[in-house]
Amino acid sequence: MKSACRTLALLLAFGLTSALGNVAIAQEITVYSGRSKSFMDHLFNAFEKDTGIKVNRVYDKTAAIALKLKTEGERSPADVVLAQDAGALGSLSDAGLLAPLPESITARVDPTYVSEEGDWVATSLRGRTLAYSSARVDENDLPASVYDLTDPKYQGRVGFAPGNASFQAFVTAMRLSEGEEKTKQWLLDMKANGVKSFPKNTAIIQGIAAGEIDFGLPNHYYLIRFKISDSKFPVEQTNFEQGDIGNMVNVAGAGVLKSSKNAEAAQKLIDYLLTDKGQHYFVGEIFEYPVVDGVMPHRQHGDLDTKLEQAPEVDLNAISDLNGTLKLLREVGLL
């Protein structure tokens, strides 16, 4: 009897040890994502399936995510941050909240798209563009520069999304390259010229198609999503003249929080986003440009080199003053 009890006790102890071992092995991370649920859920699900690492997800606008992380500081439960633009990532880096990434991750991406501190890395590229109505706009009527949109002939015909992180990064880049006064004056002149504010880029494209506006300032990939569904969708897009700030190329990117207690698993997620599988998802499903060599852009993109030649020179490490841009947008009455 005593022998049986000892055997049972040993089996129970072994079972408990095994269970505790499984708990220790089980991994999960928390991601604060400024990229939308509709964009990222599929990729997070694939990562969970391929690695066994559970991803807890918190979605919000990129600016709100950055503010949340700064407010939480070392107490944040976040392990990874995904942002829509380099400006928000730069502001988190400046605040000392991001940890250096291993070279095995940063070396996979062109140094142009890695922070100087090595604490964030691009996961995809996106370009600012001019979208316009193919039904109501003659190509001879297209503006050469984003600054031309303040001309009275465009009054009430233009839309943008001042609450969108990509637009805010564009304004930050304009402040950096053109100066505070010129940027403020452009925003005031756009407002005086009847610019219409939309909640997001998708609504800009829909507004053009519906006849609410004739021109819009979105990222390039939003129109592609409509064109894939309907090749006759009545909106086209183009670049401004070479070097114009309206052609800015920005990044979506990711970093690991210094406060993360799951840094190794967090790095695995960022590494996964840079695999062929992750890059093909960004290209084939979101219609962004890849950041890893060997992955081809979507056929609807056109040549990436041409897009980069048209883009202005913007140091993505220098557009971290998100707070200054938010303050300016509030000051001119656009937020």
Commentary on this structure:
The chain is α/β, with parallel strands linked by helices and 335 residues long. The chain has 2 domains: 29-126 and 250-302, D-Maltodextrin-Binding Protein, domain 2, CATH 3.40.190.10; 127-248 and 322-331, 3-Layer(aba) Sandwich (D-Maltodextrin-Binding Protein, domain 2). The protein is built from 13 helices and 11 strands. Strands 1, 2, 3, 4, 5 and 11 form a 6-stranded mixed sheet that branches. A 5-stranded mixed sheet has the order 8-7-9-6-10, with helices on one face. Helix 2 (37-51) links the parallel strand 1 and strand 2 (53-59). Helix 3 packs parallel to helix 4, helix 6 packs across helix 7 and helix 6 (165-178) crosses helix 13. The radius of gyration is 23 Å and the shape is globular. Mean pLDDT is 91; it is low at 1-25. It comes from Algisphaera agarilytica. Keywords: Iron, Metal-binding, Signal. Pfam families: SBP_bac_6.
The CATH class of the largest domain, by name, is: Alpha Beta
The best one-word shape is globular
Number of helices: 13
Mean pLDDT: 91
The CATH topology annotation of the largest domain reads as D-Maltodextrin-Binding Protein, domain 2
Oligomer: single chain
The helix/strand order is: HEHEHEHEHEEEHHEHEHEEHHHH
The assigned CATH architecture of the largest domain is: 3-Layer(aba) Sandwich
Please summarize the sheet with the most strands.
Answer: 6 strands, mixed
Distance between the termini: 78 Å
GO molecular function: metal ion binding
Keywords: Iron, Metal-binding, Signal
Binding site for Fe cation: 221-222
Signal peptide: 1-26
